[in-house]
Amino acid sequence: MPAGTAFRTLALILNSKGYTNRYSNSDFMKTLTGILLLTLSCSLQAQRNCGSEAYKTQLVQNNPAVAQSIQAAALQIKKTLEQNRLVARRDTSANELINIPVVIHVVYNTPEQNISETQILSQLTALNNDFSNQNSDKVNRPLVFDNVAADARIRFCLAQVAPDGRPAKGIIRKQTSMSVFSADDAVKSNMRGGDDAWDSKKYLNIWVCNLGGRTLGYASLPGSPANVDGVVIGFDVFGTVGSLRPRFNKGRTLTHEVGHWLGVKHIWGDTECGDDEADDTPRQRTYNFGCPSFPTVSACSETADGDMFMNFMDFSDDACMNMFTVEQKKRMRALFATGNFRNNFLASFACDSTLVQAGPVAVDTVAAPVPVKQDVYKIYPNPASSFVTLEYTPAAALIKKSFTVYSITGVKVLSGELTKEKTTLSLSHLMRGIYIVRIGEGSETITRKISKQ
Ligand code: ARG
Ligand code: ZN
Ligand code: CA
Question: I need a labelling partner for 431 at 20 to 30 A (CA). Which of 55, 196, 369, 421 fits?
């Protein structure tokens, strides 16, 4: 804008607010010269971003000490950001509680697969009990193995903060046209009928879907690509309540898979008499299934205590697995050390709802489409003899419906209106045979066959 216009505008503002009275003459002149300078330089450059710079220059000219204080403030910002980065890179301290924010992607096709919140919460509880050695079935362990059982000091919460800083619930529900998923990771991708991961450096992504029954669940190992990092669990083995497969109804599929996600290997080392790189789990020939009893000695058992079949990293039934060991715990926690793959989680704050950084979103959950309610008609008994009842349960308000009964040759034999929920018609004057009942008009017409005997 031309300087002249700016000046006139300024003068007007000053007059109308009466500021001139509160300034001494020289103060006023100083300010005015400053603003004029600013306005002038404004008109020389692109108008949109010159204001603050010029303003600062003018402030500093009037008071050189301001320069220092502005610089100090800028340095503060830089320092804090640097410190935050250092915090992210710090090592774990011994037994410090590591909090893992979790986001559950419920990717469902049928309503049955759209598991309840209660079922989800039951799984979270089981997972935390298992990882903290607080599972009530720990009493079933033989003493020798109980002696090496460990509380991993890792806890899981439903994410309270979304990636964009807004409040979250940690549960995403998404309907899909896919009736079954396999271990090909389609469930982790919007494009393939699944749901994209949240930043896997900050969240443990858990997809719950129909895996078709053969696979209970699978996990990505540490080091996997970010967009597929997380675990997938069948909806019918997830949690401890709901309709669950009886052998897998204690939430241990997730415990097992999160074990993998945290770098723990199968207890038999995935080859015959293999090594799981945990010294306190005895060598065992292969996996166990079902519910073995103690001791179960196998080909390469080193002591009479045999296999640690109750370890979460075996394949026993849910009711028969109940522990992680100290060495398994060490493997998990090593992942969080400085520079290691899951170190970022030490700086993840998404478990704390007080740390949301933006306003709420209207809906956090993608709601399932609500099925459209329809009128329900029942005609009974069928076959009928002397009477037939037409029952009409309206989806909304009851509106009069016309009806007509035709013989099989198309002759209208009866007609009238349904004005209440049940209407009984006499058929005694009609011959035996098939009749067509038509109710309603236009696109909402329904037809039913009845047979008179
Ligand atoms: N990935 C293994 C499977 O699909 C999980 C085994 C979990 N075991 C259990 N008892 N829940 O077979
Ligand atoms: Zn496994
Ligand atoms: Ca071992």
Answer: 421
Active site residue 257: yes
- Is the CB of 318 inside a 6 Å radius of any atom of ligand 1? yes
- 253 alpha carbon, closest ligand: 1
Pocket lining: 217 vs ligand 1, CB cutoff 6 Å: yes
Give residue 399 CA to ligand 1 midpoint distance, Å: 55
CB of 106 within 8 A of CB of 173? yes
What range defines the domain where residue 133 resides?
A: 52-345
Question: Is 209 in the same domain as 315?
Answer: yes
| Residue 282 DSSP one-character state | P
pLDDT in tens, 374-399: 788 999 999 999 999 999 988 878 88
The response to whether residue 248 sits with its C-beta less than 6 Å from ligand 1 reads yes
Both 138 and 86 in one domain: the answer is yes
- Cβ of 170 below 6 Å from ligand 1: no
Q: Which long-range contacts (CB under 8 A, 24 or more apart) does 413-419 make?
A: 418/390, 418/392
Give 267 Cα–ligand 3 centroid separation in angstroms. 6
pLDDT digit string, tens, across residues 28-79: 445 444 444 444 454 555 556 678 888 888 889 988 888 888 888 988 888 8
State the closest ligand 1 atom to the C-alpha of 215, by its place in the atom list counted from 1.
4
**Same-domain check for residues 28 and 100:** no
Q: How many domains does the chain have?
A: 3
- Alpha carbon of 171 to ligand 2 centroid (Å): 24
Q: What is the DSSP string of 233-272?
A: EEGGGSSSSSS--GGG-SSHHHHHHHHHHTTPPPTTTTST
Pairing assessment for the beta strands 98-108 and 204-209 based on DSSP bridges? parallel
Note whether 176 and 83 are same-domain residues: yes
Round to whole Å and give the CA distance between 147 and 138: 11
Residue having the nearest C-alpha atom to atom 9 of ligand 1: 253
Expressed in angstroms and rounded, the spacing between residue 227 Cα and the centre of ligand 3 is 31
pTM of the model: 0.68
Classify residue 436: in a domain, yes or no. yes
On whether both 402 and 337 belong to a single domain, the answer is no
